[in-house]
Known about the structure:
mainly alpha; 85% helix
Amino acid sequence: MIQNIGIPGLILLLVIALIIFGPSKLPEIGRAFGTTLKEFKKSTRELVSDDEPNKDKDETQKGKAV
C-alpha cells in the first residue's frame, strides 16, 4: 500500500499534516514517532535474541533424547 504513494502523494500527505498539526507540533510528532519506532525495534530484537538460545537448547535436547 505505501509503496504505491509516490512523490506527489507523499508531498500531499506532508502538506495535509502541516495544515492539521501546524509547524510547531510537527517536530514533536516526528520525535515521538522516532522514539516509538526505536523502542519497537529494540523490543523485537530482544524477542528474537531470546528465542535463538532456546532454539539451540531444544535442538541439543533432541539430540540427547535420540
